[in-house]
Amino acid sequence: MIQTFVFSQYGTGTLQIKQFIENCNDDFLMLNISSKEITLCEEAITKMIAAAQTGNVGMVYSDYFKTIDENSVPAPLIDIQKGSLRDDFNFGALVLITRAAMEFYLKNV
Questions:
Q1: What does each C-alpha distance from 9 to 14, 17, 22, 78, 103 come to in angstroms?
Q2: How many CA atoms, within 13 angstroms, populate the side-chain half-sphere of residue 20?
Q3: Considering its fold, how many domains does the chain have in total?
Q4: CA angle 61-80-75, nearest 5°?
Q5: What pTM, to 2 d.p., does this model score?
């Protein structure tokens, strides 16, 4: 089971995130950065974990579907490339973070 941290729509402080990570015993953590309800299948989690492990990366995000008028509509995201990461970069609603990335964050906050 992967623990999920849901960011508040009114803002989430660094202290809250730090406390949650310190109490997380898993190798991976899902961050719901949208504060909205998200539905996903177990296969999605498995694929995200596999991508993190094979790609040797600290964070994984993916394309997703939006529900509009009871219809699923694709919402593809762009890949991160050198120079493309900005404050308003769209990672989607859900990202997977590795234990190594969590520990790096805790050491540098």
A1: 15, 14, 22, 24, 25
A2: 18
A3: 1
A4: 50
A5: 0.71
